[in-house]
Amino acid sequence: QVQLVESGGGLVQPGGSLRLSCAASGSIRFWIMGWYRQAPGKQRELVATASASGAPYYPDSVKGRFTISRDNAKNTMYLQMNSLKLEDTAVYFCYQSPGNWGQGTQVSVSS
Fold first, then answer.
1. What pLDDT digit, counting tens, does each position of 62-110 carry?
2. Which of 9, 33, 44, 102 has its CB surrounded by the most CB atoms within 10 Å?
3. 40 touches 50 (CB < 8 A)
4. What own/partner pairs with CB < 8 Å and gap ≥ 24 does 48-56 have?
């Protein structure tokens, strides 16, 4: 089983930026990868996905603010988050299809 390790979370003010990384212990080349998040008391929700070729998908809640990317040669995926809002506060999880999850990294947006 490929291990996924997220990093890059932290505390940021509204309007700020963070870049999350997801390092995989094995190849991600052929798999759909994605980011999900879970806020306290809420269900886990999709943030972004990238197909094996890199084609992105974003829900409306983050479209235009977040950018997903992947470096298959480095077995690493990224999430650039700009114009962060209070409601972006959550634990962010890396996902590799089908069904492989990282442990999560906390993102807190607060003034």
1. 999 999 999 999 999 999 999 999 999 999 999 999 999 999 999 999 9
2. 33
3. no
4. 48/79, 50/77
Give the pairing of strands 56-57 and 76-81.
Answer: unpaired
DSSP codes joined into one string, 19-88:
EEEEEESS--TTS-EEEEEE-TTS--EEEEEE-TT--EE--TTTTTTEEEEEEGGGTEEEEEE-S--GGG
DSSP β-ladder status, 10-12 and 105-109: parallel
Measured in Å, how far apart are the chain's first and last C-alpha atoms? 39
Structure tokens at 26: 């094995």
In angstroms, the CA 92 to CA 82 distance is 15
CB 44 within 8 A of CB 36: yes
